[in-house]
Amino acid sequence: MASLSASNHVARVLSVADQVADVDASSRIANSWRRCLVNHKLDPARKGPPQTLTEAEIRHAAEPMEQLIRLATPELESLAKVLREAGYCVNLADPSATALLSWLPGAPDADIFLHWGVYTGSNFSESCEGTNGLGTALAEEKPILVHRDEHFREQWGIFSCAVAPLFDPAGRIAGAVNITSCRGDLSRTAHQLALAVTMEATRRIEGAIFRDHFRNASIARVPGGDGGDGLLAYDEDRRIVGACRSARALLGLTDGTIASGIDLSRYVELDHEGVRGADGVVELRRADGRALGRGRVAPPLRARSSTRPLAPRRDASADRFDALHRLAGGDPGLVRSVMRLKRIGDHNLPVLLHGETGVGKDVFARAIHAGSNRARSNYVALNCAAMPESLIDAELFGYEAGAFTGARRDGSKGLIVQADGGTLFLDEIGDMPVALQTRLLRVLENREVWPLGALKPVPVDIRLISATHRDLGRMAEQGAFRADLYFRLRGMEVRLPALRERADRDDVIRQIASEEAPACRLSDDAWSRLAAYPFPGNMRQLRHVLRLAGCTAEGGVIIGADLDLPPFGRAEPDLEAAERATIVEALRKHGGRVTEAARALKLSRATLYRKIKTMKIETPR
Ligand SMILES: Nc1ncnc2c1ncn2[C@@H]1O[C@H](COP(=O)(O)OP(=O)(O)OP(=O)(O)O)[C@@H](O)[C@H]1O
Fold first, then answer.
1. Ligand 1 in reach of 361 Cβ (< 6 A)
2. Given 477, 495, 513, which residue is the final one in a domain?
3. How many whole angstroms from its chain centre is CA 57?
4. What is the tens place of the pLDDT at every residue in 24-67?
5. What is the number of structural domains in the chain?
């Protein structure tokens, strides 16, 4: 759609009610505009931010979504990292279209989202904000791309949003994943591609929720359908106890048929032992007996894990470190680090992981935990960059009942106490606000935590693993990070190399290709493009590129054109870290006087204040 002037946009929206608009009158956008005008009586010219919940209200709204948030967060973190470069903000919203979690892109796009109130707590229901990705996708229960001036309210015309609804194991709306960009230079096709990636991510989240919900049942996978593979849960008597939305659509199952405990064999050909052998081809049929053609049914997940032959065992202590060895692969530097970690053994030494985004800091931290004597206790992770200061404080240190307005009725233990006896992983520790650094240092020194409002401390025994992509040593020198905390964190420092630096890079590509696109092989052309690409997003980007290529490849061969490799001559320098360091230094030099520091930096006072705020820089007193 061409970009229109403000008044033209309003006139155009208003004209859909009279069926004279130049948009396809039967299109989903026109239908939504009509709903906004006729049902919701909205004004396309109205300006102003969306309704926004307070922090306490956000917490309250998030409570019933706890399971979804827990299972969706790792997937959404990966999605946000992939889309960050293209300036997308990623949100997880509840069924009422309120954003409950947000991952902002870097500056300057982040400032635009904050300015317009596109952030955690904002409500984007269609009945309030008119046609928009979240509201309209949830109203129609279908994925949608709402591109710039397809929005109902004129003011949202600078944004494009793509949204995939999330369904619970019973096929009901559970929320939605929204990605929004304010970049005018991204084409509709680019947004459509981003929507496809988002839909894939929501399918994986739905799968995780389904498996978690039916963890005591066996699960069969029924491939096919627009909504992706279907999942069926069945009990020991082979009666269907659950079916995801896609399986319901594929097989014609309803709540009624599921509640009646219908036999799996009505839909899936079975052999005498149950579902036909591993990865067997089976005939599928709908409830009405109509043949659905051939499909593959994976063996039940529980059976798969219990019947899979065990790998030959080495000695018990070597097994504990298997995951770490697998991650280190054949990279000599990493192998040396793993040997050192093994020597440290079960000593409670803090570990600081350092490396670019996507190199595997989180999975490495999990592997250290799995290889330690704490493996049977909790592994608790917090990303310090993904939350505002006030939330990190409450999340990490906990609070007593009634400690502040909006606090949960029975208080909150806090993540440090939850990690007692186990491992606490603090990701992006370089982004931890200075006030909280001081509190964390006290916990490490005294081995006790004071939840907000508590009358006495709670003793804790945690192993701390932290990670950063920043140069913490330099930040400590420049006063942007507490030096005493830095030295405490780096009991042992492990540098995780970028993918392009790994000596075993080809093996890593082969390994990830076999996991992400198991049914495909790489053509020579695809192989040389992968081998020559610098992968600024490292393992995460490689995984996503191959996953997408595995979906688009034809005839089981991934060719160069299937690889979505945006041009990158070399890894981007960390401009934000450099800018932050320059500002911190200028403030230090001028004794915290913002006017003088702004003059020295040749910035306006207002700009410097804004940067201090968005970069969460503490001004020295
Ligand atoms: N050695 C490896 N082999 C295969 N896959 C890996 C390896 N290391 C990491 N990955 C995969 O790469 C992705 C990113 O890993 P992870 O989230 O641990 O990175 P990260 O360094 O913590 O990223 P960030 O710093 O941006 O949070 C995950 O999907 C993970 O499974």
1. yes
2. 495
3. 22
4. 666 899 999 999 999 999 999 999 889 988 877 887 888 888 88
5. 5
